[in-house]
Amino acid sequence: MADESFDKQWYVIHTYAGYENKVKQNLESRIETMGMTDYIFRVVVPEQEITVNENGEEKTVKENDFPGYVLVQMIMTDEAWYVVRNTPGVTGFLGSHGGGSKPTSLLPDEVDKMLARINGAPQIAPQTLDAEVGDAVNIISGSMAGFEGTITKIDNEKHQVTVLVNFMGRETPAEMDFADVKSVI
């Protein structure tokens, strides 16, 4: 059984973009086969279902909030760190300084915001955005709610923006719907 002196925390692992769900499958399989169920509890790809309007038809699609990242809830022991770090497709932990150092866990409010968005109801994306590339925006809903960032790209066809957000001390581009951002006035 897990040593009670350690706490269950959420960490961010970095993967190759587009391989997040494969990494999740690989890690979940390794947790079982390597007997780590007392140390590694949940693996979550931060994605959500959204409703988009394409050619006049509403369609529900899955959108990955943070391409290249997967969340893992675990007790950070040497063995658990090794299992996660050496899972095929995992390139490292976000918040680790390399050389085998243990990463920094997410703050509870960051986790709550992300899980609320992942478990939330589908959203309808608005058709327009009152902002331009280079504008600062507040993220008003979703896993990054409460963060501020700068718009780097606007896709009017998909009704999405790419926002550069300071996440865990790193500038990270995040794609989100027009409904998720509000211009900073």
From TrEMBL:
What are the entry keywords? Answer: Transcription, Transcription antitermination, Transcription regulation, Transcription termination
Q: What InterPro entries does this protein map onto?
A: KOW, NGN, NGN-like_dom, NGN_dom_sf, NusG-like, Rib_uL2_dom2, Ribosomal_uL24_CS, Transcrpt_antiterm_NusG
Keyword Kinase (UniProt):
no
CDD domains in UniProt: KOW_NusG (cd06091), NGN_Bact_1 (cd09891)
Pfam families found in the cross-reference section: KOW, NusG
| Record-annotated NusG-like N-terminal domain positions | 7-118
Output the SUPFAM superfamilies linked to this UniProt entry: N-utilization substance G protein NusG, N-terminal domain, Translation proteins SH3-like domain
| Gene Ontology CC annotations of this record | cytosol; ribosome
Q: Which Gene3D superfamilies match?
A: 2.30.30.30, NusG, N-terminal domain (3.30.70.940)
In alphabetical order, the GO MF annotations are:
structural constituent of ribosome
**Example of a GO biological process term:** regulation of DNA-templated transcription elongation
Q: Where does the signal peptide begin and end? A: none
Where's the KOW domain?
A: 130-157
Please explain the role this protein plays, according to its UniProt record: Participates in transcription elongation, termination and antitermination.
Record family assignment? Belongs to the NusG family.
What NCBIfam families would the database entry show? Answer: nusG
Query: What name does this protein carry?
Result: Transcription termination/antitermination protein NusG
This chain's source organism reads Weissella halotolerans DSM 20190
